[in-house]
Amino acid sequence: MTKLFDLTGKTAVAIGGNSVLGSSIAQGLIDHGAKVAIVGRNLEKAEEVVKELENSGGTAKAFQADVSSRDSLIRVADEIEQWSGGWDILLNAPGKNSSTPFFELEMDEWDDIMDVNLKGIVLTCQIFAKKMIELKRKGSIINISSVSSTTPLSKVFTYSVSKAGLNSVTQFLAREFAPNGIRVNAIIPGFFPAEQNKKILSPVRIDSIMKHTPMNRFGTPEELQGAAVWLASEKASSFVTGALIRVDGGFGGMTI
Length: 256
Known about the structure:
GO molecular function: oxidoreductase activity, acting on the CH-OH group of donors, NAD or NADP as acceptor
Protein name: NAD(P)-dependent dehydrogenase (Short-subunit alcohol dehydrogenase family)
Strand order of the largest sheet: 3-2-1-4-5-6-7
Keywords: Oxidoreductase
Organism: Cytobacillus oceanisediminis
Family: Belongs to the short-chain dehydrogenases/reductases (SDR) family.
């Protein structure tokens, strides 16, 4: 069974790997044998994550890039290729949120969130998947979506729209890349308190979330590792592509 999830010899690129959820998933990939490139806009935070990964016995390296910039992504892809020779796993975990009410939303803020959550994923897949195809590297692309992608949440209009778009991108690219042996799937996390949503988790909102979550608790970052490792493994999930995998404590199945 352990061989089923063995990632030894694989290289993973974790875009947004310096975030709470991204770094936890990176740890899961490391623990199963992969080496990981941690890519973040903030290089210092990326280097801190790398130190933690190396302390656990893993091989990792920090890289800086802005996901909304094609030139930045091309540069970092070249740097990672020089470091590892290529990659087999692409984790897309950048994220930006805002609680601005709809009628107060300015298009600068809309563009900023969309640039990171949606445009950034499209650019990243254009650059990194194209290189995988050129190098004939079969593999797995894992996008981090959100429960708000299927049931829009109050107070996070732009975020919800961006994640709904990400689901569509995931399924389109699954079809596009399948002939090249590249699988594309998305994980739909439930409520995992992280940097971008802590500021809107008031006591009233937390109570509402718990009433809509059958397991009656928040998720912990480590609980995303299993789904990510499964999707990363060419043996364990070889016939899985275009899937939207919920890790949400039952939130998506709740009604009244």
